C-alpha cells in the first residue's frame, strides 16, 4: 500500500515524495487512517518503526488549510521526553509540512526561553515540547492550551521512567475537553495503561512489535568481562569496526565521560551526550555523528532517546541496564529502516542476574562471544562457563575469515584509512598496557570480529524508502 491510499492530501504526498518516502511502515498503515478518522490512538511501537510520521502526518493533514493559531495559542501539542527526540520530531514535522502553510515551534530546556516565548507570541499550529519547559511557558503566560485540539504523547514509557507523569497530568488539565489524543510507547506498563484509560476516549490500539521482541535484523552477542577490563574490550571491539557508526551505552553520566577519556588513550575519538552536557555540546556531537566526522558516541539512556541516525551498525552495552526493557530500547538504535545491525553486551559477574532478566524478556539466550585476545574472560563458577559448542569468536559467530576486516582500507565504505595510533606504530591498535587489561596481541591475530548481514534495503534515494523515526 502507498501513502496515496491512506487519505493524505497532495501537498503532503509531494513532500513525502521529495524525501524519497513512498512506502508506509506497518505502524503508519495502522495509525494514520485511524487518526484521520478522528479516533484517539494508542500505538505500541519501538523506536525506528516510523511512529513519528504515524502521528505527525495526520496532525499536519487535519491542521493544514484551517485557520491560523491566535497569538500564544497552539492547535496541536506533541510532548517528548528529551530535547534530542523533540528536536528530531520538529525536524520531521518541518520536512513533512514543507508544502503547506504551517508554523511549528520547538520548546525544550537548554535553549533560551526568551526565544521560545517570542516564537510563540504569534501562535503556532504545532508545538513540540518537553514537559518541563512546557510548564515553564504556561506559568509565564507565553502559551495557552485552551484551543489545543490535538495532543500526542511520544515515548510515554520513557516519560514515566524520567518522572514526568505528574507534569503530564497537569498539562492535560490545561487542555479542552474536546480533543483528539494519541499515545505512543515502546512498552505498556500498568501506569501507562491507566494514563491512557483516563485521558483517551475509546482509543484504537495499534501494535506493530511486541514489547519484548528485539528487531529481527539485530545480531546479538554477550562477552563476559570483568568490570576493570571493559574499557580495553570496548577499545578492541571498536578498533575492529573502525569506520562504522558505533553507539556505546553507559549507566551514568560520570561513566560516559570516563569512557570517552579511556577511548582517547586508545586513539579512539568519541563524544559523550548526557544531561550534564549543554544543549550546544549535545547538538555538536550529534551533528558530527550524523555527518560521519565522529564515529563513536557514548550515551546515557535518557540522552539517547532522539538519536535517530541512519547507518548505526553497532551498539555496545558497556554496562547492562537495570531494567530489561531498556536493553531493547538501546539496541534499537541499530537495524533501523530495514537495515541490519549488531549489538554486543559486556557482562561483569555481578551483572549476570541482569543478563538473565534480559534473556527472559526477549525470550532468547544471547550467544556468548569470546573476548578479544589478551583480555581475560570473566567466570563465576562452572555453571557460568559457556560450553565449547556455545562459545563463539570472530570465526564462529558470523565471523569473517581470511580477507574479513583485514581489508578495512578498501572495504570500510567511506574511503577512510586506518588511523595511526599516537605511538606511531601501524595497525590502529593500542600497544600492550595502553588500556586496562589489554595485553599485546600476537602478530597477524585479530580479536573478536562480527559480520553484519547485508541489508536488502539499498542506499539512500532508492525506491521504497520508508519514513523512519
* Integer-rounded radius of gyration: 23 Å
Number of domains: 2
Q: Which CATH class of the largest domain applies here? A: Alpha Beta
User: H/E series, N to C?
Assistant: HHEHEHEHEHEHHEHEEHEHEHEHEHEHH
Mean pLDDT over the full residue set? 80
Number of helices: 16
How far the N terminus sits from the C terminus, by CA atoms, comes to 19 Å
According to CATH, what is the topology of the largest domain? Answer: Rossmann fold
Beta content: 5-15%
Read across the widest sheet, the strand sequence of neighbours is: 3-4-2-5-6-1-7
Number of strands: 13
Helix content: 25-40%
**If classified by CATH, what would the architecture of the largest domain be?**
3-Layer(aba) Sandwich
Give your account of this protein's structure.
This protein is of the alpha/beta class and 469 residues long. It has 2 domains: 3-207, P-loop containing nucleotide triphosphate hydrolases (Rossmann fold, 3-Layer(aba) Sandwich); 218-411, Rossmann fold (3-Layer(aba) Sandwich), CATH 3.40.50. 33% of the residues lie in helices and 14% in strands. It has 16 helices and 13 strands. It has a 7-stranded parallel beta sheet, with helices on both faces. The radius of gyration is 23 Å and the shape is globular.
At a glance:
InterPro entries: DEAD/DEAH_box_helicase_dom, DEAD/DEAH_RhlB, DEAD_box_RNA_helicase, Helicase_ATP-bd, Helicase_C-like, P-loop_NTPase, RNA_helicase_DEAD_Q_motif. By secondary structure, this protein is α/β, with parallel strands linked by helices. Helix content is 33%, strand content 14%.
Amino acid at each position: 500500500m502507498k501513502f496515496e491510499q491512506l487519505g493524505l492530501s497532495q501537498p503532503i504526498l509531494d513532500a513525502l515524495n521529495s524525501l524519497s518516502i513512498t512506502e508506509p511502515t506497518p505502524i503508519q498503515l495502522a495509525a494514520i487512517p485511524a487518526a484521520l478518522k478522528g479516533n484517539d490512538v494508542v500505538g505500541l511501537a519501538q523506536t525506528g518503526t516510523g511512529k513519528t510520521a504515524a502521528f505527525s502526518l495526520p496532525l499536519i493533514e487535519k491542521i493544514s488549510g484551517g485557520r491560523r493559531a491566535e497569538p500564544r495559542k497552539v492547535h496541536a501539542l506533541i510532548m517528548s521526553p528529551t530535547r534530542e527526540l523533540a528536536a528530531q520530531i520538529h525536524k520531521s514535522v518541518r520536512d513533512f509540512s514543507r508544502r503547506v502553510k504551517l508554523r511549528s515551534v520547538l520548546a525544550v530546556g537548554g535553549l533560551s526561553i526568551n526565544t521560545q516565548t517570542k516564537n510563540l507570541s504569534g501562535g503556532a499550529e504545532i508545538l513540540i515540547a518537553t514537559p518541563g519547559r512546557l510548564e515553564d511557558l504556561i506559568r509565564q503566560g507565553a502559551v495557552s492550551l485552551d484551543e489545543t485540539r490535538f495532543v500526542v504523547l511520544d515515548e510515554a514509557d520513557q516519560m514515566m521512567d524520567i518522572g514526568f507523569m505528574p507534569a503530564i497530568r497537569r498539562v492535560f488539565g490545561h487542555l479542552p475537553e474536546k480533543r483528539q489524543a494519541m499515545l505512543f510507547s515502546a512498552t505498556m506498563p500498568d501506569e501507562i495503561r491507566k494514563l491512557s484509560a483516563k485521558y483517551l476516549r475509546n482509543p484504537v490500539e495499534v501494535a506493530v512489535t511486541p514489547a519484548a521482541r528485539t528487531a529481527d535484523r539485530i545480531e546479538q552477542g554477550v562477552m563476559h568481562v570483568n568490570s576493570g577490563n571493559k574499557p580495553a574490550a570496548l577499545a578492541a571491539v571498536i578498533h575492529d569496526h573502525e569506520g562504522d557508526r558505533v553507539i556505546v551505552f553507559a549507566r551514568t553520566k560520570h561513566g560516559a565521560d570516563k569512557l570517552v577519556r579511556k577511548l582517547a588513550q586508545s586513539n579512539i575519538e568519541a563524544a559523550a551526550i548526557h544531561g550534564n552536557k549543554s544543549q550546544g555540546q549535545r547538538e555538536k556531537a550529534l551533528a558530527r555523528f550524523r555527518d560521519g566526522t565522529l564515529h563513536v558516541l557514548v550515551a546515557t539512556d535518557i540522552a539517547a532517546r532522539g538519536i535517530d541516525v541512519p547507518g548505526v551498525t553497532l551498539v555496545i552495552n558497556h554496562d547492562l541496564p537495570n531494567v530489561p526493557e531498556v536493553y531493547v530500547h538501546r539496541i534499537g538504535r541499530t537495524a533501523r529502516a530495514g537495515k541490519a545491525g549488531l549489538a554486543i553486551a559486556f557482562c561483569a559477574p555481578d551483572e549476570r542476574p541482569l543478563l538473565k532478566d534480559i534473556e527472559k524478556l526477549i525470550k532468547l539466550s544471547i550467544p556468548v562471544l569470546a573476548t578479544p585476545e589478551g583480555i581475560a574472560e570473566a567466570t563465576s563458577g562452572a555453571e557460568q562457563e559457556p560450553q565449547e559448542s556455545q562459545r563463539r569468536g570472530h570465526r564462529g559467530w558470523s565471523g569473517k575469515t581470511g580477507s574479513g576486516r583485514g581489508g578495512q582500507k578498501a572495504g570500510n565504505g567511506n574511503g577512510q584509512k586506518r588511523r595511526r595510533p599516537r605511538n606511531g606504530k601501524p595497525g590502529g591498535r593500542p600497544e600492550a598496557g595502553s588500556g586496562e587489561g589489554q595485553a599485546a596481541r600476537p602478530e597477524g591475530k585479530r580479536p573478536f570480529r562480527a559480520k553484519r548481514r547485508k541489508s536488502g534495503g539499498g542506499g539512500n534515494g532508492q525506491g521504497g524508502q520508508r519514513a523512519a523515526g
